């Protein structure tokens, strides 16, 4: 028995009966020999965290565009917070932490620069629309490693694809581990965006409806604690009653939905950040338009995508991979006049 087999055995005797066991993992697009130390989900986690697209998350905006404050979240720190919340929930229920970690680390790989503003621009431009969760899967399967992809397991890709949204209309991940990441994403971003908004003096705790605070808690830590524990205990109760589903209790879920709705109206789509959102969208529209008209200016890799999958797809892949800083750099290089006479 090698080390991987020992870890897989420990999973079988320690995890909940409904957990996704590493030894039963789904197929990869390309068959490969299993590692003798790491389980398949550990391999996936490592491939994601060592990828270029993961590293670029540090320069992609979460909510606040081009802030120089050291304490504001970026897409990378958001991803780390989601991962830790998800692992706590998984451990509490007795599910596969390695699978949860791989899904959580990869869930926002496909996000565009300038927060959701970038996603809105590409969704408006592209004939087939654009969704960051679908793009995350595309990046991991077709863009990483110069087009080879990371060859991840089907459970990880499904969890990433199904992490977005918060209603019954969106398809849920077929693993409970994937469903955990979906909840953890909302628990993380709603609460850390409140924290960042208060830090930026754009929100006061007293602006949040009192009813929500009474249910979830008045502090950042208390709200996270309430939501995480409720998710664990409610999901355990579901499983014990034959319901294979991750969920929150009705009162807690309704409070989170109302809090999320408040943040969309007050911060994400509110008038406070509208000017900066419009600036970011303008930059992205102009950069996309330039490369759509001058595809030969893109790196050779993306020119190959243009040849194989069309102009829209090639430009979208190039634009969606840009960090905020790099997108602004490109915009300045293209459109801002240079001092040529000294």
TrEMBL record:
This is Deoxyguanosinetriphosphate triphosphohydrolase. SUPFAM superfamilies: HD-domain/PDEase-like. Keywords: Hydrolase. InterPro entries: Diverse_Catalytic_Enzymes (IPR051094), HD/PDEase_dom (IPR003607), HD_domain (IPR006674), PHydrolase_assoc_dom (IPR026875). Residues 75-190 form the HD domain. NCBIfam families: PRK01286.1-2, PRK01286.1-4. Its EC number is 3.1.5.1. The keyword Hydrolase applies.
């Amino acid at each position: 028995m090698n080390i991987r087999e020992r870890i897989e055995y420990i999973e079988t005797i320690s995890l909940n009966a409904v957990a996704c066991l590493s030894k039963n993992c789904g197929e990869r697009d390309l068959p490969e020999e299993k590692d003798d130390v790491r389980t398949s989900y550990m391999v996936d986690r490592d491939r994601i965290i060592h990828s270029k697209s993961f590293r670029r998350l540090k320069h992609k905006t979460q909510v606040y565009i081009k802030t120089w404050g050291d304490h504001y979240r970026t897409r990378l720190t958001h991803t780390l917070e989601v991962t830790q919340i998800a692992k706590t929930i998984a451990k509490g229920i007795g599910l596969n932490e390695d699978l949860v970690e791989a899904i959580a680390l990869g869930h926002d790989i496909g996000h565009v620069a300038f927060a959701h503003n970038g996603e809105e621009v590409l969704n408006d431009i592209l004939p087939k629309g654009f969704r960051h969760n679908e793009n995350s899967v595309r990046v991991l399967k077709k863009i990483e490693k110069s087009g080879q992809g990371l060859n991840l397991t089907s459970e990880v890709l499904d969890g990433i694809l199904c992490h977005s949204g918060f209603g019954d209309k969106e398809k849920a991940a077929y693993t409970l581990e994937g469903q955990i990441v979906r909840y953890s994403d909302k628990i993380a971003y709603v609460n850390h965006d409140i924290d960042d908004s208060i830090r930026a003096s754009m929100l006061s705790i007293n602006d949040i409806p009192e009813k929500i605070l009474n249910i979830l808690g008045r502090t950042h830590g208390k709200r996270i604690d309430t939501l995480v524990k409720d998710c664990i205990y409610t999901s355990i109760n579901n499983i014990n009653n034959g319901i294979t589903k991750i969920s929150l209790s009705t009162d807690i879920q309704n409070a989170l939905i109302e809090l999320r709705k408040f943040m969309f109206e007050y911060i994400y789509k509110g008038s406070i950040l509208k000017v900066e959102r419009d600036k970011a969208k303008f930059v992205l529209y102009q950069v996309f338009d330039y490369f759509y008209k001058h595809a030969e200016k893109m790196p050779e890799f993306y020119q190959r995508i243009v040849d194989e999958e069309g102009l829209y797809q090639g430009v979208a892949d190039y634009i969606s991979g840009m960090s905020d800083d790099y997108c602004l750099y490109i915009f300045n290089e293209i459109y801002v006049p240079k001092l040529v006479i000294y």
